[in-house]
């Protein structure tokens, strides 16, 4: 029994080492840069997904550096992207999001940094063929499918947030422009009439037609 | 019992040594946004280290260094506002669906900004209870283990359902906003055309009366 507990413990530790994932949504003020660092072993695969949810033209600069300072990924003004890499060097990897090209729009950026592969829900220790193993394999299948569902949901949630942000912006613009145009209409038309009237009004007190 | 404790501690340590970290100023406040449905449990682990100019490294533990964690709900109501130590775990449950803002600010009282002084914050935030419960692995027999796995899966499915309900709410808001924009555009177009026509008529009438009075016509 203690042996089994120890093996399970070890499997759990290996599982924890195998996968780490962080997803965060942060606000990037204008002309600002936010950097994140992660310590990684060599020979590990990591994936960085990011998407701009709202703000300005919905784009952001992003770059990823390895521990030696070499830039392994750099993109400017991207709306969304997904970047995978197998690490060769052990150390601290840095990725940064920059809004420095924008002067007045702050952006909301979502990123998801996944390291390694997600551990299976059950440790794969041996292949027994008993009734209990069928339950285990059913659990594994359900877990895999649920992971895909959650990924898909996150994707749609972000897209919906982005579209809603655009729709609200459009609504605001339509309201402001309508009010502005009405004011301009009134000002211009009344101004035109007054100007024309002033052309034909004599400055001298004596009256007289402008022409015969 | 001892192996259980060691296993749990090792997981805790590993989760921090591999967590994402970022740098911030001493008195700076950094916030992250979490858009979550209602009745969702959010668990956050953090660890903060201070830069030491003497050793040019980050101290493993700085005594007296704490972190204010503030969680604001979408209606600007404060859900959680507590001072934690240099390392801690905070949890909160959302009552309303929407954007919750989690802010971190250190309680450092250094007013003078010492050159190069900064903080390193390790962060790990989990939404919904779909993380693997390490203590469940120490199950006594296979049936219990599968049972616990099934409960974990059921929890995951509940989270998916809650997210879908929230998505439905948001799509409705989105659709209403789009329809509002559409009717706004139509209404304003009609109003502006009417204004144009009436102002045009007023202009011609006014000018005609003016010219008649000036005996030009």
TrEMBL record, chain A:
Q: What is the lineage of its organism?
A: Eukaryota, Metazoa, Chordata, Craniata, Vertebrata
Domain of life, per lineage = Eukaryota
**Residues passing through the membrane, by range:** 174-196
Q: What are the GOLD domain coordinates in residue numbering?
A: 33-115
| Membrane topology listed for this record | Single-pass type I membrane protein
ATP-binding as a keyword of this entry, yes or no, is no
Q: What family does the database annotate? A: Belongs to the EMP24/GP25L family.
Residues of the signal peptide: 1-21
Supply the name of the protein. GOLD domain-containing protein
Residue runs in coiled coils: none
Q: Which SUPFAM superfamilies match?
A: Supernatant protein factor (SPF), C-terminal domain
- Gene Ontology terms, cellular component aspect? endoplasmic reticulum membrane; endoplasmic reticulum-Golgi intermediate compartment membrane; Golgi apparatus
Keyword set for this entry?
Answer: Endoplasmic reticulum, Membrane, Signal, Transmembrane, Transmembrane helix
The subcellular location is: Endoplasmic reticulum membrane; Endoplasmic reticulum-Golgi intermediate compartment membrane; Golgi apparatus, cis-Golgi network membrane; Membrane
- One Pfam family recorded for the sequence: EMP24_GP25L
TrEMBL record, chain B:
Q: Look up the domain of life of the source.
A: Eukaryota
Q: Per the database entry, which stretches of residues form a coiled coil? A: 136-163
N-terminal signal peptide: 1-19
Topological category with respect to the lipid bilayer: Single-pass type I membrane protein
Q: What is this protein called?
A: GOLD domain-containing protein
Q: Which UniProt keywords apply?
A: Coiled coil, Endoplasmic reticulum, Membrane, Signal, Transmembrane, Transmembrane helix
* The family this protein is said to belong to: Belongs to the EMP24/GP25L family.
Q: Which PROSITE patterns match?
A: GOLD
Please give an example of a GO cellular component term from this record: endoplasmic reticulum membrane
Q: Where in the cell is it found?
A: Endoplasmic reticulum membrane; Membrane
- Chief place where the protein resides: endoplasmic reticulum
| Domain annotation GOLD: ranges | 29-127
Q: Which residues cross the membrane?
A: 185-204
């Amino acid at each position: 029994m203690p042996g089994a507990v120890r093996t399970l413990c070890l499997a759990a530790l290996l599982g924890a080492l195998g996968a780490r994932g962080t997803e965060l949504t942060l606000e990037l003020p204008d002309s600002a840069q936010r950097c994140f660092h992660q310590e990684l072993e060599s020979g590990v695969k990591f994936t960085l997904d990011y998407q701009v949810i709202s703000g300005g033209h919905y784009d952001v600069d992003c770059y990823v550096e390895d521990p030696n300072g070499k830039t392994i990924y750099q993109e400017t003004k991207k709306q969304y992207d997904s970047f995978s890499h197998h690490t060769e060097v052990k150390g601290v990897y840095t990725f940064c999001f920059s809004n420095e090209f924008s002067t007045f729009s702050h952006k909301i950026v979502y990123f998801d940094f996944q390291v390694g592969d997600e551990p299976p829900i059950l440790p794969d220790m041996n292949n027994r063929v008993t009734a209990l193993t069928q339950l285990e394999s059913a659990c594994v299948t359900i877990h895999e499918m649920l992971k895909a569902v959650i990924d898909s949901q996150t994707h749609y949630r972000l897209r919906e947030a982005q579209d809603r942000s655009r729709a609200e912006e459009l609504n605001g613009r339509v309201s402001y422009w309508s009010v502005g145009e009405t004011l301009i209409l009134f000002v211009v038309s009344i101004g035109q009439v007054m100007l024309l009237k002033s052309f034909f009004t004599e400055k001298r007190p004596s009256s007289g037609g402008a022409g015969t | 019992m001892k192996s259980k404790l060691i296993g749990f501690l090792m997981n805790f340590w590993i989760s921090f040594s591999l967590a994402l970290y970022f740098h911030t100023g001493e008195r700076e406040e950094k916030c992250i946004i979490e858009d979550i449905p209602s009745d969702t449990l959010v668990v956050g682990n953090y660890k903060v280290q201070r830069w030491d100019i003497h050793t040019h490294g980050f101290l493993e533990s700085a005594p007296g260094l704490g972190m204010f964690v503030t969680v604001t709900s979408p209606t600007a109501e404060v859900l959680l506002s507590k001072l934690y130590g240099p390392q801690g775990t905070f949890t909160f449950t959302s009552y309303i669906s929407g954007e919750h803002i989690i802010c971190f600010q250190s309680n450092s009282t250094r007013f003078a900004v010492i050159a190069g002084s900064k903080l390193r914050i390790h962060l790990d935030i989990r939404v919904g209870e779909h993380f693997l419960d390490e203590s469940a692995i120490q199950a006594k027999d296979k049936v219990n283990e599968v049972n616990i796995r099934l409960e974990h899966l059921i929890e995951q499915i509940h989270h998916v359902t809650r997210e879908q309900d929230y998505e439905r709410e948001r799509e409705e808001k989105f659709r209403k906003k789009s329809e509002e924009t559409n009717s706004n555009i139509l209404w304003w177009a009609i109003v502006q055309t009417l204004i144009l026509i009436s102002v045009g008529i007023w202009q011609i009438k006014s000018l005609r009366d003016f010219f008649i009075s000036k005996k030009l016509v």
